[in-house]
Amino acid sequence: MARNNQNTWQEKKYSFRAAAALTLGGISAVMFAFLAVLSAALKGETGMWAGALGTSAMLCAFVGILLGLGSFRDLLNSYTMSKAGTIISGIMGAVWFLVFCAGIM
């Protein structure tokens, strides 16, 4: 009896939590770049709304970390998006934490 060697091609599955973590990390990075350029252009006179946007971006980064770590529990074909979302959100969470601590001083 001959073996049936058929290759099965599957699309890579990504979980919703992994995609959300990557999206939130990207949003946080874009907001950081926007606020850094705006603050430099206005010579530090951005006002309270910049602080509110920065706090929102920091919250996005920390939620992205939690979602990214939670996405590793899902049984997937590929964890690439989970890794990328967790790493980007983690880096942005650390950056926002340092900016927040520098603002307290």
Describe it.
With 105 residues, the protein is mostly helical. The protein has one domain (29-104). It contains 3 helices and no strands. The chain has helices at 16-41, 48-70, 80-104. Helix 1 packs antiparallel against helix 2 (48-70), helix 1 (16-41) packs parallel to helix 3 (80-104) and helix 2 packs antiparallel against helix 3 (80-104). The longest helix has 26 residues, at 16-41. The chain starts with 15 loop residues before the first helix and ends with a helix. The relative contact order is 0.22. The model has no long low-confidence stretch (mean pLDDT 88).
Blueprint of the fold:
Layout: H1 16-41, H2 48-70, H3 80-104
Helix pairs in contact: 1-2, 1-3, 2-3
Summed up, what is this model?
The protein has helices at 16-41, 48-70, 80-104. By secondary structure, the protein is an all-alpha fold.
Q: What percent strand?
A: under 5%
> What is the typical, i.e. mean, pLDDT?
88
* Number of helical elements: 3
Outline type: elongated
Q: Name the structural class.
A: mainly alpha
Q: Radius of gyration, Cα only, in angstroms? A: 19 Å
Kindly list the characteristics that best describe this protein.
105 residues, mainly alpha, 3 helices, 70% helix
